[in-house]
Each structure stands twice: as structure tokens, then as C-alpha cells.
Amino acid sequence: MRFVIVTGMSGSGKRTALKMLEDMGFYCVDNLPVPLIGKFAELILSPKGEISKVALGLDVRADLSFLDIEETLKELRKNGYIFEVLFMEASDESLVKRYKESRRMHPLAIEGRLEEGITKERQILTSVKADSDYIIDTSKLLTRELKEELERIFIKNEEYNSLMVNIVSFGFKHGIPSDADLVFDVRFLPNPFYIDELKNKTGIDKEVQDYVMGYPEAVEFMEKLYDMISFLIPNYIKEGKHQLVVSIGCTGGKHRSVTLANGLYQKLKNQGNYGLTLAHRDIAN
Predict the structure, then answer these.
(1) Using one digit for the tens of pLDDT, what is the confidence trace for 47-77?
(2) Among 258, 263, 260, 264, residue whose Cα is nearest residue 279
(3) 2-154 has which fold?
(4) pLDDT over 90, % of the chain
(5) pTM of structure
(6) DSSP letters along 103-154, please?
(7) Where are the domains of the chain?
(8) Which residue from 114, 139, 163, 220 has the least number of CB within 10 angstroms?
(9) Which of 98, 80, 94 is nearest to 3 (CA)?
(10) Is 209 exposed, middle or buried (0-12, 13-18, 19+ CB in 10 A)?
């Protein structure tokens, strides 16, 4: 029996995660009243039960103390029940944007500001997040990428560390990404923009890739960058970091940075037990 508790920030994708787990064969229940959680676990985890995978969604509600849920989970462990906690996370900026787009009310901001509700919820969930088995930050995740992360944990059963590495190409003339942890400037490389047949292409096109990587400086930079990121990732995991944004910039964000970002992504892909995404912020500008 695999029993998963799905919780986290409101607006971070808990219900989406539950739907995906349901597609993976989990029996899913959302927002079960706290007094029934213990009885539910007793019935569902019975040796005579026919269900092999269960996911239970738990939310913070304006009329519910999450301390009650925490005490209930402690009691379950005390009674010998084995379960995993999946915590869905997202940045304040992402949550505000999602709530404004959906025009929904935050459960803890019915009579106040959205930002205050998010701050209050984050404080309430501090301890349960700290005790979670898995933390997935959906701030930059596409739906497809979230599904891949869940499959990696619950289908492939790979060893999991809650670090999401986001590789982002950008153009300096459009500004450095505000959430960048590491910024690399590749404007020292020859610019394909000044080659007529390459000007209107991008780093996704093979012709541009061949031009950029045709310089030994680009090849050496890629090797040194890969070596450094490979060194940093396990150390960030050890320190409990959940998201790493690696930003690679050139002048316009279409040629050199895209080529190098693609190259780094391919080198890091399938290299470790961490999540990996790739985005080209300014490729269409």
C-alpha cells in the first residue's frame, strides 16, 4: 500500500497533482474532514483492503486550524501508519498571478489582501513543509513537466531530491531575470545576428548552433559551465535548496544564449535525481 498526503500552498497545483495521481492509478480523496482522516486511514490501510495506492488532498481553510491536521498526521505515525507527504510549492509572485487570472479568492484572504493571505498560509505550513518527503515548486513548471516529476517519484520510484533546476536563456537588453540565482554572460562569443543568413534564425536552428559552437571558446565555456553546475547541484541539494535558476544571456536572447542553454540542458538531462526545465524567455522578442 502506498499512501500519499498531498498538501501545500493554495494555488500551487494540488488539485492538478491529485488528478494526475488518479490517472496513475491512485484512489484520490480531496478535503476530507479532519476528524475523519484517522478513520479513513484505518479503513484504507486495512490488510484486507483491495486498494494499493491512495492519495489524500489536505488544504488550509479559513475555518480550519491546520494544527489539527498536523496533530492527526502525528497520531497516524504514532499508530504505525506509513505515508508520504507531497508538498506543492510556488513563489508568491506566481500565486498572486494565478489568483488574479482565475479571479478566485484565497481561503485566508476572504476579507483581506491576497498577499496577506499567502503570507499567513506560508507561516501556517512552515512545519509541515519541513517534514515533507517531496517538495515540488510549480512556479516555472509546465503541466507536462509536473506530470514528469510525479511519474519520476510515484511510477518510476527514482530516488528523489526536491531540487528543480531551471535553465533560462535571455537577452540583456530586456533585463536580467529577476529570479536568477546564477547569471552567465555569453556576449563574448561572435554574434550570429551579424550574419545575414543567420540573423532571422535562432539558437534552436542547427545552422546557428553550428556557428556558435564552431568556436573553441564556446566549446570550452560549455564544458566549464557544465562542470561547475554539476558540482553545485549536489551541494545545493545537501543544503536543502528547492529551486535553482541558471540564466544564460546574450544581447537579444535569440542566438548565443539559446544555443548554450540548449546545450547545458542536454548535458544535464537524465544526469541526476533532480528536476530540470528549459525556457527561452526572449526568443520571440
Answers:
(1) 776 788 999 998 886 445 667 778 888 888 8
(2) 258
(3) Rossmann fold (3.40.50)
(4) 57
(5) 0.72
(6) TPPPTT-SSS-HHHHHHHHHHHTHHHHHT-SEEEE-SS--HHHHHHHHHHHH
(7) 2-154, 164-280
(8) 220
(9) 80
(10) buried
